[in-house]
Amino acid sequence: MSTLSREETEALIAEVLEVYPEKARKDRAKHLAINDQSIEQSKKCITANRKTLPGVMTVRGCAYAGSKGVVWGPIKDMVHISHGPVGCGQYSRAGRRNYYVGTTGVDTFGTMNFTSDFQEKDIVFGGDKKLAKLLEEVETLFPLSKGSSIQSECPIGLIGDDIESVAKKASAATGKPMVPVRCEGFRGVSQSLGHHIANDTIRDWVIGKRDGQPFASTPYDVAIIGDYNIGGDAWASRILLEEMGLRVVAQWSGDGTLAEMMNTPKVKLNLLHCYRSMNYISRHMEEKYGIPWLEYNFFGPTKIVESLRKIAGFFDDSIKEKCEAVIARYQPMMDAIIGKYKPRLQGKKVMLYVGGLRPRHIIGAYEDLGMEVVGAGYEFGHNDDYDRSIKEMGNATLIYDDANGFELEQFVKRIKPDMVGSGIKEKYIFQKMGIPFRQMHSWDYSGPYHGYDGFAIFARDMDIALSSPVWSKFVPPWKKAVPEEAQKAA
Amino acid sequence: MANIMIRQADSGGLVFYLPKRDLEASIESIEFDSDAKWGGELKLGNGGAYYIEPIARPPRLPISLRARRLGAAED
Ligand code: SF4
Q1: Which residues contact A469 (CB under 8 A, 6 or more apart)?
Q2: Which atom of ligand 1 is nearest to the CA of A63?
């Protein structure tokens, strides 16, 4: 399996674009590019965060998915109401595998689906009364909930319900925060705007609620921001920070609580993992409270070491020493893993198509295993994501923004990677094409992949996917070339 | 007019951020850069230019300000 040269990649893009009608071709041409590390500004080679072309099979989600599914949903001690028809919440229920500790239905509510289940009459006469009643019921049935968020689905914005006033009344009655979130699915071009809207509501309704209240702080307080604890990711990250002497005050939002979020403005440093979905709130806290934020990457030992040192750089020598001790302690474990898996995975080529962060973050982990990323793209990245990716990706790597089913299939057919990493919507297409596949959103029901412990699992999973005996069974016996001797004997 | 945020870059320079469009760009030059008068025309690394009313140098960055775009929209 050869790597394509720049010219060949260019030809491939041209070939894929050929099937589109002219206007569509012009539009899509801006979203397909070849990486050039000499460029500083991604907008010179790629356009991102634009409305998806009508008629193509995009894999993007909606703003409601970004707010309810990603940012708010994992806050475990709040009830997140999918306000509107039942489907939006029910079909996405518990799909992201944000792990948490707690007793579901008593003090935590992460995997439950709460909905106002709109019917025709609610659309016609408005659903505010229903929402008020719902909030009351939540209070009766789940008195240990710490508050609610009202996640608007499309119809709420269309019929013009006043969820803000309902929330205000309910909040006054219960004394708990009730956060109305205007994340109707039609807003914006992808789930990305949902992240932004959710961040803004956290800014307005959560941050600052404990300003001026006493807090027993230490000089080593940090918050993990933008880690959704998928398969336990945040836990695998948290222990590393704690081992180096830092105190993790809050986890956003995987396994997180409302109180943790309210306490975040008291920390000394915000550690931002998913830049795309939570940079907004980090920027806000930087301006309002002077808390610096730092993007870090806990995928694969090379990047972990880099990130740990960068984090330690914000603190005194005791932390820096402990940081080195942590690195030294895990190094033998990492060497053993790389020693075991690298010979099996060396030189394998991977194509990635994930959300808004992982394409650039995971590259290091693959490289630690000797694998090469030959194509990468974001579903809903913005140009600031691509700015950050150019240097991480190899020269002449194929980049695709908001790629659709057709494009991905064509690329994979021609580039012939040894493995594809993407989501559930792509999984079966590529497996049926005979290409090993890992879901890189949900870790394919595995994980964690963050941190040192995560890397061990990541390496094993990649090996399992690639070495499965099933891939040799793709050609049926009667289509296999008959060996020479057998032909002679016949 | 748009809300923008100016923050200190890790490298020492200034970064321009336009939340509405998630546009992040380095500030190549700032028209007035003294303690008493700070602001004016901002030339961005992406080729765009914005204007902020000159103010006294802010004691702390980042700071959110209102800015006016000069010239055509860049993207
Ligand atoms: S686009 Fe609207 S209807 Fe569809 S899932 Fe999102 S909120 Fe629900």
Answers
A1: none
A2: 6
**CB < 8 Å to A401, chain B:** none
Which residues, at least 6 apart from A19, have a Cβ–Cβ distance to it below 8 Å?
A406
Atom 6 in ligand 1: which residue has the minimum CA distance?
A185
Q: A338 to chain B nearest CA, in Å?
A: 33
Q: Is there a contact between A283 and B19 if contact means CB atoms under 8 Å apart?
A: yes
Q: How many angstroms separate the CA atoms of B49 and B64, rounded?
A: 17
Q: What is the ipTM of this complex?
A: 0.86
β-pair partners for B29: B43
Cβ of A63 below 6 Å from ligand 1: no
Q: Where are the domains of chain B?
A: 2-69
Distance set, CA A278 to CA A53, A66, A193, A451 (Å): 27, 11, 11, 20
For a mutational test of ligand 1's pocket, the pick from A116, A153, A158, A193, i.e. the residue with the most ligand atoms closer than 8 A to its C-beta, is A153
Contact of A196 with chain B, judged by CB distance below 8 Å, is answered with: yes
Helix, strand, or coil (residue B19): helix
Instruction: Give one word for A208, left, alpha or beta, with left for phi > 0 and alpha for psi -120 to 50.
Output: left
Give the pLDDT band (50/70/90) at residue B72.
low
> Is B22 in contact with A382 (Cβ distance < 8 A)?
yes
Q: Pick from B17, B45, B60: which is nearest to A41 by CB?
A: B45
Residue count of chain A: 490
Q: Which residues have C-beta within 8 Å of that of residue B45, sequence separation ≥ 6?
A: A40, A41, B25, B26, B27, B28
What whole-number distance in Å separates Cα of residue A245 and Cα of residue B54? 44
Identity of the residue in B5, B63, B75 whose CB atom sits nearest the CB atom of A43: B75
Here the tokens at position A414 are 């021609």
Percent of chain A with pLDDT over 70: 98
Mutate to test the interface with B, among A42, A43, A276 (most CBs of B within 10 A): A43
User: What is the average per-residue pLDDT within A189-200?
Assistant: 94
Q: How far apart are CA B59 and CA B38, in angstroms?
A: 11
Residue A2 has pLDDT above 80, yes or no: no
- Please choose, from the candidates B10, B19, B22, B71, the residue with its C-alpha nearest in 3D space to the C-alpha of residue B42: B71
Superfamily of chain region B2-69: NifT/FixU-like (2.40.50.240)
Q: Which amino acid is residue A33, in one-letter code?
A: A
Q: Cα-atom radius of gyration of chain B, to the nearest Å? A: 11
Residue A485 pLDDT level (bands cut at 50, 70, 90): low
Provide the whole-model pTM: 0.92
CB of A368 closer than 6 A to ligand 1? no
Instruction: Check residue A488 and give its pLDDT.
Output: 67
